[in-house]
Write a structure and sequence with these properties.
- The structure holds two protein chains of two kinds.
- Chain A is mainly α.
- Helix content of chain A is 82%, strand content 0%.
- In chain B, helix 5 packs parallel to helix 6.
- Chain B is globular and about 55 Å long.
- In chain B, 47% of the residues are buried.
- Classes of the chains: A mainly alpha, B alpha/beta.
- At the A-B interface, helix 6 and helix 7 of A face helix 2, strand 6 and helix 3 of B.
Chain lengths: 215, 243
């Protein structure tokens, strides 16, 4: 046991960069795959829809923690050793893709059917309709739930601590094990999460407001 | 060969048969008004012509090409068949010019400059050349509908379908839209219009089709049909609408 020092606190807060990095990379990976899931979900081609729905159900129906373990230890079973960072970003990207795909599908379906008819009548293909007519309108509708999911993801990245990835929560555990000052340490950890999430929700409100003006 | 050949078309929504063996031919340059009570199948018939609604049996040919065939490229066909809807259905995130040029640049792969020139031309045609930059929500219903007509015209269609295009408008805005239609008629555009504007149908349409319970009940020269209805159904329908 030792005293909690200022440098401990700095080290702790500095670990937030790994929480942020994990979140950002997972959002990017998840958005890419999520966009594909969304398209598969809305194009008039039943097999594509079935694949997307299966994926969404598998991911949404199992705990993120379990997915993290499966990815991390799964590579080991096949003889590949992967770093906690790689396993965590991959697992959270796959996880985000299902949720973002479903959120965006909801946005697409919220655009009136008449917009599909009007654009089809001009001779646009399904992908052209999505790109030029439907997605631009679905985009604004999807901002609040999308950022809501980001906030959820920021907090969920704490699960990566169990495979030994040192982010905010894991850093808290380490400092607390050495100093045994749980209240100070974990309240600081919580405050750091809160700040990150607060910034995101503010961003959401701003973005929505400016898009309302810009249409 | 007629421009539109509809032969014995049947269409159902589930158990409800909305078109029961409809046959109709439209010649190039002809203007046909379709009237009838709501639920008589008139809008459905119109929407079948550009393949927005699939049919269960019968054939629809446009310009010699079968619409209800898996081999038909509906995207190509739709470039030649304009449709204007009751609720305008402009793209709310695009200004009037972009609403019009979208089909030209994306579908017809036209250079943007050329597309803009066409947009200006068709907007002038509907009397809105000063509204190119306006977004749909800045326009009145009548103006939005005129932009929607311009959007269809820009694709230089061989046939224009109008689906109750004045029904969602305030009475004082109907005139400006009908004026645009009359201009198109004068220019020789082939048109099919589902309408409740009997006065307009009488003056502009060459032929009038009365639909009742999914069938063509009566048809003929517009004035003759309106002035001398043969069936009790048409008599009762005309009695119930204001002329």
């Amino acid at each position: 046991m030792r005293e909690l020092t200022t440098s401990d606190m700095f080290w702790l807060l500095f670990a937030a960069r790994w929480t942020i990095a994990l979140t950002v990379v997972s959002i990017l990976g998840g958005s890419l795959l999520g966009a594909i899931i969304m398209v598969l979900r809305v194009i008039p081609f039943p097999p594509a829809k079935a694949v997307a729905i299966l994926y969404i159900n598998l991911i949404q129906g199992t705990p993120a923690l379990g997915q993290l373990f499966i990815v991390f230890f799964g590579f080991g079973v096949f003889g590949y050793d992967v770093s906690p960072w790689f396993a965590a970003t991959l697992a959270f990207s796959l996880y985000s893709a299902a949720f973002l795909g479903e959120i965006w599908r909801g946005g697409v379906h919220a655009v009136p059917h008449a917009q599909w008819e009007a654009s089809a009548s001009l001779g646009l293909s399904t992908l052209q309709q999505l790109r030029y007519v439907i997605i631009p309108q679905a985009f604004r509708l999807s901002i609040p739930p999308t950022i809501g999911f980001w906030v959820h993801l920021v907090k969920n990245t704490s699960l990566a601590s169990v495979i030994g990835f040192i982010e905010l929560t894991r850093a808290g555990q380490i400092i607390n094990a050495a100093t045994f000052r749980p209240m100070t340490v974990y309240l600081t950890v919580a405050a750091a999460y809160f700040v990150i999430c607060f910034v995101l929700t503010q961003l959401s409100a701003r973005l929505e407001g400016s898009l309302r003006v810009a249409r | 060969m007629s421009l539109v050949e509809i032969e014995n078309v049947h269409k159902s929504y589930g158990d409800i048969e909305v078109l029961r063996g409809v046959s109709l031919r439209i010649e190039e340059g002809e203007i046909v008004a379709i009237i009838g009570r709501s639920g008589s199948g008139k809008s459905t018939l119109l929407r079948c012509i550009n393949g927005l609604e699939p049919i269960q049996s019968g054939t629809i040919r446009f310009d010699g090409q079968q619409v209800n065939s898996a081999d038909t490229d509906l995207r190509k066909l739709r470039q030649k068949v304009g449709i204007v809807f009751q609720s305008f259905n402009l793209f709310p995130h695009l200004n009037a010019e972009r609403n019009i040029t979208l089909g030209l640049t994306v579908v017809k792969k036209m250079p943007p400059d050329e597309a803009r020139t066409i947009a200006r031309k068709v907007m002038t045609q509907v009397g809105l050349e000063d509204k190119l930059d306006a977004y749909p929500d800045m326009l009145s219903g009548g103006q939005q509908q005129r932009v929607a007509i311009a959007r269809s015209l820009a694709m230089s269609p061989k046939l224009m379908l109008f689906d109750e295009i004045t029904s969602a408008l305030d009475p004082e805005l109907i005139g400006e839209v009908l004026t645009v239609l009359a201009g198109l008629a004068e220019a020789g555009m082939t048109m099919m219009l589902v309408t409740h504007e009997m006065g307009f149908a009488r003056n502009v349409a060459h032929r009038l089709v009365f639909m009742h319970e999914g069938e063509i009940w009566e048809s003929g020269a517009a004035r003759a049909v309106l002035d001398d209805p043969q069936t009790p159904e048409l008599k009762s329908f005309l009695g119930s609408v204001l002329i």
